[in-house]
Write a sequence for this structure.
């Protein structure tokens, strides 16, 4: 089941840079695990922002909640979630 | 070059249904040509709305303008465009 | 899987009253079928508005899209959808 | 009398974690008392947010004010309240 | 039980003036009945707008819904409702 | 001359509680003086918020400015002011 | 007593031009009477808009309501009103 | 050349009061110089706010930028600027 | 003197196409005259919209008002105007 | 390829002034390099704000992202980006 997930990272002015690098490294590792598993299906950077647009493919809402709220950078994030579904005009039977 | 394109279709109450079906058929044909060409790279329906979230892969801004503004349903659409780029953490070298 | 669905019905000034009554009767019949099936799990009126707050319990996003967009009053509606999940503090194991 | 109550919890960056855990434990205890009493009739988590959607069933406005503003997490919350009433199409005579 | 009710009347350009006068006369009669009954406890005009700010005193939410949605001018209105309660600092024991 | 005055009190997380209690006591005393004088004609709490809706009856704009901006809690408040006037349909000649 | 009044004139596409010219002529005459009387104390055009920013000097709120809502172009206007008062730093004792 | 300039002063909770008084005194002196010169042509307080509505009369945009951004209170201000011009209906040839 | 002018053209559904083409031809001619004169200094299309971002170089506000409000497509436009000035870091002494 | 880039600089109250001057000097140097290279094609100050409107001319989205997010003042900025393209009515073949 597909969801558009948009994440903005808001780093407060004066935030500890070492702590931030730790969080970013942990975030990257978590992301790559989820990407390899096919759960975090797509990610793109938003030009000029510390933000991404992502597509998640999950079994249900509860799983999505657990994944998003345990991301290492989650305490610094604003998150917007939009449920999606396959488009009937698509010529790719497995376009996710 | 990648762009998120979000399209909302607003059909006025009382709009001619035959005309609408023609526009939708023409839109579907145009979409499938662009999808086959790899230009309209992804499309998803937004649940509960007459809206989609799409990813376009185009050579430049001018080409995107030409594609969007000549869509058959364009006169009934609100369109929001966001420039994207590849995310450096992605493990898929060709993730578009 | 649970979703909050908020529906506002916007009747244009001068809309044909007979047509509106037909749509409302068809909407009511559809609602009661879905309520009996446990799909449209809750509905409440918003005080002073032609709006409701509903809880849907569906198998997946695609099913929710199909249900909402085929409602008889859908062409007159604004719809807002929010994915929900069970709250871990709840003392009711089946609180949906 | 029914109200939709939407609560967003905003934890400032750097907030004392021990204090937060105390508030959350106290909030959970209060919630479960009110849920057992039938006052906090429903609660759902909003996917991806530290937010809930709740339905309260109270005798009057003043009682609702007292309940909400004395919640342990209230000082960290944004709250939106919407008065509701029973929907006439409902087939469940006691659907609250 | 008290509610602030704010009503904006939006008359479409070209609306039939005779019909409007009928609705306004019916609205005035209904208002005065409710004011005499103590239900529509206060009304003030918003300066420069076709809008009012009102205080309703009703037994419950369902009664308020019935009163507001059957007002003669309701089809031309935008309505915003806010639940209120007595302020503990008030020196007037019956200030409603 | 009547004005609707809406006040939201925003207490920063970690604000000194003793200082807050002093401000609230001073605010209450000032309010009761103004209520006794008929200037702060009505006050209601907004359910679930640290906010009130008030009606002021003052001789002119300058007097209202002086009253509002010298309230003890004013430095923590957001204030919205709307000029009102008597409604011609009112059956109470002195409804203020 | 001073108020900032901001007026936007919204002429629907296809509005009768002769009717519009009549309304504009009547508006101009009314404006010049009020300007001569010192009531409509200032008026400026907003660059690039069919809008003005005005300062009214009136005896009370009710008088302002009567003046604004009887302007010939009022049915096509959006109006925003802000109560003002003299600024204590002003070196002009009669700056209105 | 005329501009409407709207200034909101936002004093952070806990801001040094002595520093604030210095800034206000410097602001007042600067204002009175500019008012005497005819540049800061009008100023009014917004009732109930730490805000003003002003009319500036300057030779060009660059001069306005220099004046506004060097005001002593500018670091605490939100500023909104709207270009204005003379209204053709005005009966005062020099109404600025 | 420089201004950013953003224009959105809103063509109502069902608008007469011949009339629209006439307006667009007249708009183009007017634009090219103003561009040749150096007044309409820059114009860019906004990708995917019937909108442009322009830079005007005019002698004063009144001239800008006259130019914008007499554009052939003005009755179908929403216009937003922002006063600009030269940036002191620019290495081009005549960058307009 | 052209983009409108709007940058607002938000300096927190009490920010270290020496640090700010360093960032501004570094920003100016970077800007002048990019302006000399033709990449940062235009820049204008927004009157009365610590903001600019700029036009960037870059090879692709990824390059724009890299340029913007490494600006020395970027951590204090809000940035809004809008893709542009050449306007077909322009009489300047190289108007960028």
């Amino acid at each position: 089941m597909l969801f558009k997930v948009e994440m903005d990272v808001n780093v407060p002015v004066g935030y500890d840079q070492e702590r931030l690098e730790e969080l970013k490294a942990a975030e990257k590792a978590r992301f790559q695990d989820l990407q390899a598993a096919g759960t975090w299906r797509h990610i793109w950077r938003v030009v000029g922002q510390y933000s991404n647009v992502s597509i998640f493919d999950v079994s249900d809402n509860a799983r999505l909640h657990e994944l998003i709220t345990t991301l290492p950078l989650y305490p610094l994030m604003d998150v917007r979630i939009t449920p999606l579904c396959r488009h009937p005009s698509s010529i790719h039977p497995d376009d996710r």
User: Anything to note?
Assistant: Chain C has two helices and four strands.
